[in-house]
Specification:
This protein has six helices and eight strands; from the N terminus they run βαβαβββαβαβαβα. It is α/β, with parallel strands linked by helices. It has a six-stranded parallel beta sheet. It has a two-stranded antiparallel sheet with strand order 3-4.
């Protein structure tokens, strides 16, 4: 598979989403060697990371709510998470074993204290852009491969927005892991992605190109 004219989107491979982190995804660190192995073969590599200010709207501690509950805030359904990926902290940094040398661009998201962001393309109001779409299209890229954390949140929303933006979109199945909150969410979101036209492939398909 030729990926030299495609972009790899590495989603939120940060310490807080890996074992030992504030919002750890089970097996989250297992995606790191897979991503590091395939990244050099892509024409462009973009990494996103949550980069939240203290007291961010997604933090359960700000609202006095339970982690995993939801609340409507300014008309947006907000999941309540533990404090995570606070700007400048170790938890917000990329996993130390992730090879960052191939990365051409880092997109910081969720930087506004009152607005969360799952997608690499838009904040959670679905209208405030991150700048990723014009960056990719300006380079003539029409195909993206999505990997990272977590399958049912930031990977999901990034892949769905990529499809809406007109990109041929593939998820590297062995380079994603999910939160599965609520139960069954990973299965549901994978089904939604496939229905939207997202193709799921194995990293071996890329390495054997």
């Amino acid at each position: 598979m030729d990926t030299t004219h495609a972009a790899l989107l590495i989603i939120d491979v940060q310490n807080d989403f890996c074992p030992g982190g504030a919002l750890a995804v089970a097996g989250g660190d297992s995606v790191v060697p897979v991503i590091s192995a395939v990244a050099p073969g892509f024409g462009r590599v973009i990494a996103t990371r949550d980069w939240h200010p203290a007291g961010h709207v997604s933090f359960a501690s700000r609202h006095g709510h339970d982690v995993g509950s939801t609340a409507s805030i300014d008309g947006i359904d907000q999941m309540m998470w533990p404090d995570h990926c606070v700007q400048g902290t170790r938890g917000a940094e990329f996993h130390p074993d992730l090879d960052i040398r191939p990365i051409d661009l880092i997109v910081h998201k969720g930087t506004s204290v009152d607005l969360d962001s799952y997608s690499g393309f838009f904040e959670n109001d679905h209208s405030t852009p991150t700048g990723l779409e014009p960056y990719l299209k300006g380079l003539g890229i029409r195909e993206v491969f999505v990997c990272g954390l977590a399958t049912d949140y930031c990977v999901y929303f990034t892949a769905m927005d990529a499809v809406k933006a007109g990109f041929t979109t593939r998820v590297i199945a062995d380079a994603v892991r999910g939160v599965d909150l609520p139960d069954g969410n990973v299965e549901r979101t994978i089904g939604d992605m496939k229905s939207a036209g997202v193709e799921f492939i194995d990293s071996a398909t890329i390495r054997d190109r």
